[in-house]
Design goal:
The structure holds 2 protein chains of 2 kinds.
Chain A (H helix, E strand, L loop, with lengths): L2 E12 L2 E13 L4 E5 L6 H9 L6 E6 L2 E2 L10 E4 L11 H11 L4 H14 L15 H14 L4 E5 L7 H18 L2 E6 L2 H7 L2 E6 L2 E6 L1 H6 L4 H7 L3 E9 L5 E4 L2 E4 L11 E6 L5 E4 L9 E13 L3 E8 L5 E8 L11 E7 L3 E5 L1
Parallel strand pairs in A: 3-8, 3-9, 6-7, 7-8
Antiparallel strand pairs in A: 1-2, 1-4, 4-5, 9-10, 11-12, 11-14, 12-13, 14-20, 15-19, 16-17, 16-19, 17-18
Helix pairs in contact in A: 2-3, 2-4, 3-4
Chain B lengths: L4 H6 L1 H40 L2 E2 L2 E2 L2 H7 L2 H34 E2 L3 H7 L8 H12 L4 H8 L18 H26 L2 H9 L4 H30 L2 H6 L5 H10 L5 H24 L18 E2 L2 H30 E3 L8 E2 L2 H8 L1 H34 L5 H13 L2 H11 L16 H26 L2 H9 L4 H12 L1 H16 L3 H6 L8 H10 L6 H27 L10
Parallel strand pairs in B: 3-4
Antiparallel strand pairs in B: 1-2, 5-6
Helix pairs in contact in B: 2-13, 2-16, 2-17, 2-18, 3-13, 4-8, 4-10, 5-14, 6-8, 6-14, 6-25, 8-10, 9-10, 10-13, 12-13, 14-25, 15-16, 15-25, 16-17, 16-19, 16-22, 16-24, 17-19, 19-22, 20-21, 22-25, 24-25
The chains are: A alpha+beta, B mainly alpha.
Chain lengths: 363, 586
């Protein structure tokens, strides 16, 4: 089922006047797509999800499920299935009764709905727990039951509100793959709200990045990460080094002149020569080599820099370098596994920046 | 993106109708609730107040001036004020240390002691007063004990009358009866204070005592106020206790005597107005000075409060303190128990012999048994009304967040600030002879007004009890059901009600218990023997001079009352634990 949002606005009227939580959002989520709403807390992503579910009414705008307008349908008639942040499993019902609740509301007979609930519990590997009460389950198990309950509703779409946020870090990592597998195999259109960019990048078909009640950019994880439209998107999806400059040449040998030197770029979008731009370079896209290393290729820039500090992060070592006039620009460079020769603060190095990995943002 | 503009505009009529229906059902229900409260709370008060401002059918301040220039009546108002202040102060002194110990320390027996502290609540103080006279009177048990150990000699001089004018007796009995309400409030308030506040102060170098007065006390002040208000207004307007003790110089007693007297005149209602405006003024002043909460006050505790385990000596000390207070507070109950089963008890410390005669009398005599059945009927119906209206109000305020929710909440809580005596006076005025409602007046068939008076009086307890449950219930649990296709009603019945059942049952049990032993409205509104509830019957027996057995029969009825309320309070306490205090919040 395709979800279409048209000019959706939500304004909260409180004692402090009117606060727009979501302003004028239009969006189309394709049938079967696993779609993410990503943004910092307070950006309106949960508000948007709750408007899709019918738990909130938009102040203006329309919502369509396929060609059917559902803006006026109350929540219980909208046939969406939501996985809540704290799971919202009913503590007075068994796991089985929780999962069978949706079919029960649809008038499915007792035997049939129990059988169906059992099937869903098997799908999430929670068969054998059906007689338990939710508080007798661990966080991860509750998470699976919450998902089973949503899947059992045979809804038109699945809505997930930060479903992994109550789990501890290890389990959260494990559940990412698991959750994506279950959602994709259900074939349902799913909308997932999170503030965790790793979660979004690793699980989504497409992501809408939100900020201050508006969608900033929509795209696949790769598009957003490698070709962000704004500094906000670049920053929110991971660490990035920025440098302002001017596009001096377009075409195959496009270049940007910056205070630290000339950087070759491959994708200049539709920008004209002379445009003021900001270059965005991810720390892991920079190669760091000791000063005397002579190897060099044509399509990358070589910039001299000085190591300021280094931080060990397990799989990578992150160096902070200063470069440019009077070493006033500070960049971060991530090196997988660290360098063969240990670098110390004050060491002179060369930074290599390949053209393919430098994204241009309009300043 | 494809455009749906045409569809949207074509449906705008339907859209508005749907929005209208969804938004207006709660408003409609709120309207019904407001209508109920206005008809049976506001209108009676207005009638009662306005009745004091008419002389010979003309609007006039004549009676009002007569009252406020009358030194006897003003003296009585001063007495009432003093009784209330002292009762509240004594209750606070009794309850605060116990509540602090209860929440801060753990020691063997604390749970049972904490339940026993509530025992004094299970008897209206006027019933205890019957026994207190036996204990502290001139030829009472205390003096007999003192003579036995040789401190006084009754043959030489008249022994002291410990009740004196009765003033001290009234304060003592009311304090011993009411301090558990403060205890519950303070315990609940203390349990709600985030231990991190306390720990932060200690971490910055504040001593334990300083932390209590600078941090804890300001934070529990609203809870303290809530309990204090109930105690203050209760003792300010109580009529049963002073009348049994024989201390009549109080405004409430004068109003009562005039209301049930042969002729009601505007002077009575002028007095009602003065009593009401004093209560409300004091309530508002207290709320302004002490009752305001703090922003962020309702935030959840960041950690579990830890209790310190007491050593052997401290445990004994705590037992002694709890035990002492409980022992003194249940003396009236013990007295009632003994009186109710005493065969002959004259000039001895304990009864000489025991009998079940009085207990049997109560359940066989048509008068007493009839009044028990009446009370069960009144209390049962009013409890039903309270549960329906109170749950509805709580839902409208907490969940539906209906427009004007705060005002609705204030209206539902108003009965706490309005003494039962004044409400009863209002019903008397509304059903006065010659009015359209005469037939349901106190002297004819007061069934309906008794049920309504009971319901209005105790509605706040249900609203508070159910609201507390709703506030603690994550809204997502209800949203999850709606999301899976359950209607508002189905969600309410399958999810909300089962999950807050403990709160609803506890509120119902407490409300029922209070209805069973409702004093002021019963004494005033039931004036025909056929419609007497338990309290009025006890009062009649206790004040009757006809039969020498009457006092014992009153005490025997008291025993049934104690059994009934003891059981219900125990059930409520088991269901709610520390949260029991939430029910008593203003």
């Amino acid at each position: 089922m395709q979800i279409t949002l048209e000019d959706i606005t939500k304004v909260y009227e409180g004692s402090g006047g009117k606060t727009p939580a979501v302003s004028d959002i239009s969006l189309r989520i394709d049938s079967g797509e696993f779609f993410f709403l990503l943004g910092p807390s307070g950006c309106g992503k949960t508000t948007l999800l709750r408007m899709i579910s019918g738990l909130l009414e938009p102040t203006a705008g329309s919502i369509y499920f396929d060609d059917r307008e559902v803006s006026d349908l109350p929540v219980e008639k909208r046939n969406t299935a939501m996985v809540f942040q704290g799971y919202a499993l009913w503590p007075h019902m068994t796991v089985l009764d929780n999962v069978a609740f949706g079919p029960k509301m649809q008038g499915v007979g007792r035997k049939q709905r129990h059988q169906y609930a059992d099937e869903q519990l098997t799908t999430v590997q929670m068969n054998g727990f059906s007689r338990r009460k939710p508080n007798q389950l661990s966080g991860g198990q509750q998470q699976r039951v919450a998902l089973a309950r949503a899947l059992a509703a045979k809804a038109d779409c699945l809505l997930l509100d930060e479903p992994l946020s109550s789990l501890d870090a290890r389990l959260r990592l494990h559940m990412r793959g698991e959750l994506r597998r279950l959602v994709k195999s259900s074939g349902m259109t799913a909308v997932y709200v999170t503030h965790d960019q790793k979660e979004a990048l690793s699980m989504a078909d497409r992501i809408a990045v939100m900020d201050a009640g508006q969608i900033v950019q929509v795209g696949t994880p790769e598009q957003l990460y490698n070709q962000p439209d704004t500094r906000f998107v670049a920053d929110f999806l991971g660490e990035a080094n920025f440098i302002d400059g001017r596009l001096v040449e377009t075409g195959p040998s496009a270049k940007v002149e910056t205070p630290v030197g000339t950087l070759p770029v491959s994708d200049t979008k539709t920008m004209a020569t002379g445009t003021a731009v900001t270059c965005c370079i991810r720390p892991e896209h920079i190669t760091l080599t000791p000063d005397r290393d002579e190897k060099q290729s044509d399509d990358s820039a070589s910039l001299p820099a000085t190591i300021v500090s280094s931080m060990y992060l397990g799989e990578i070592r992150q160096y902070t370098c200063s470069l440019g006039e009077e070493d006033r620009i500070i960049w971060k460079i991530s090196v997988l596994g660290g360098l063969s020769k240990k670098m110390n603060a004050g060491d002179r190095v060369i930074l290599r920046i390949p053209a393919d990995n430098t994204a241009l943002l309009e300043s | 993106m494809r455009s749906h503009t045409t569809i949207a505009s074509g449906d705008s009529g339907k859209k508005r109708r749907l929005a209208f229906r969804r938004a207006h059902i709660p408003v409609l229900l709120a309207g019904l609730l407001v209508a109920f409260m206005v008809a049976f709370l506001i209108v009676p008060i207005m009638r009662s107040v306005s009745s004091g401002f008419f002389a010979d059918g003309q609007l006039s301040g004549y009676w009002f001036v007569r009252v406020i220039t009358n030194p006897i009546l003003m003296g009585e108002l001063g007495n009432a004020f003093l009784v209330a202040v002292l009762t509240t102060a004594v209750s606070l002194l009794l309850s605060l240390p116990l509540a602090v110990i209860r929440t801060k320390y753990s020691f063997p027996g604390i749970n049972i002691l904490s339940i026993l502290v509530l025992v004094p609540l299970i008897l209206p103080p006027f019933v205890g007063a019957i026994a207190m006279k036996r204990l502290l009177g001139q030829f009472g048990i205390l003096n007999l004990i003192l003579e036995r150990i040789g401190w006084i000699d009754m043959t030489q001089s008249l022994p002291p009358d410990w009740l004196g004018s009765g003033f001290a007796g009234v304060v003592l009995l009311q304090s011993l009866h009411l301090f558990p309400i403060l205890y519950l409030n303070i315990t609940a308030a203390l349990a709600n204070v985030d231990p991190a506040y306390h720990q932060a102060a200690r971490n910055l170098g504040a001593s334990s005592i300083k932390t209590f007065f600078k941090i804890t006390f300001p934070l529990i002040r609203p809870g303290l106020f809530a309990g204090g208000t109930i105690v203050f207004i209760w003792s300010f307007t109580d009529i049963g206790t002073p009348m049994i003790i024989g201390y009549d110089h109080l405004t409430a007693v004068t109003i009562f005597k005039e209301l049930v007297g042969a002729e009601i005149n505007p002077r009575t209602f002028s007095l009602v107005f003065i009593l009401l405006s004093s209560s409300v003024t004091l309530y508002l002043m207290g709320k302004f000075l002490f009752g305001r909460g703090f922003a962020g006050d309702s935030s959840k505790a960041t950690m579990v409060a830890e209790t310190h385990r007491l050593g052997v000596v401290s445990t004994l000390g705590a037992w002694f303190l709890f035990g002492g207070v409980i022992f003194v507070a249940v003396l009236p109950h013990i007295g009632v128990l003994l009186l109710g089963v005493a065969d002959s008890w004259i000039n001895t410390i304990l009864p000489e012999s025991f009998t079940l005669r009085h207990l049997r009398f109560v359940i066989t005599s048509p008068d007493t048994m009839g009044s028990i059945i009446n009370s069960l009927k009144y209390a049962g119906i009013s409890t039903g009304i309270d549960i329906v209206l109170g749950s509805l109000a709580a839902w409208l305020i907490v969940r539906a967040k209906v427009f004007g929710g705060a005002a609705l909440d204030g209206l539902c809580m108003l009965p706490l600030a309005v003494p039962g005596l004044i409400l009863a006076a209002g019903y008397v005025a509304m059903t006065a002879p010659g009015t359209a409602l005469e037939a349901i007046g106190p002297t004819q068939n007061p069934f309906i007004i008794l049920v309504i008076a009971y319901s209005v009086r105790r509605l706040p307890f249900v609203v508070r009890g159910v609201s507390a449950g709703l506030q603690q219930l994550p809204e997502a649990l209800e949203e999850a059901a709606r999301n899976l296709g359950a209607s508002t009603l189905t969600t309410g019945l399958r999810i909300t009600v089962p999950l807050i059942a403990a709160n609803i049952i506890a509120a119902a049990v407490l409300t029922f218990a209070f209805h069973m032993l409702e004093v002021s409205d019963s004494l005033i509104l039931a004036q025909t023997a056929d419609y007497y509830p338990i309290t009025k019957q006890i009062f009649r027996l206790a004040t009757s001079t006809g039969s020498p057995e009457a006092t014992s029969q009153a005490a025997a009825m008291g025993i049934y009352g104690i059994l009934l309320l003891g059981t219900t309070m125990g059930v409520a306490s088991l269901l709610l634990g520390k949260r029991l205090g939430m029910v008593f919040r203003a």
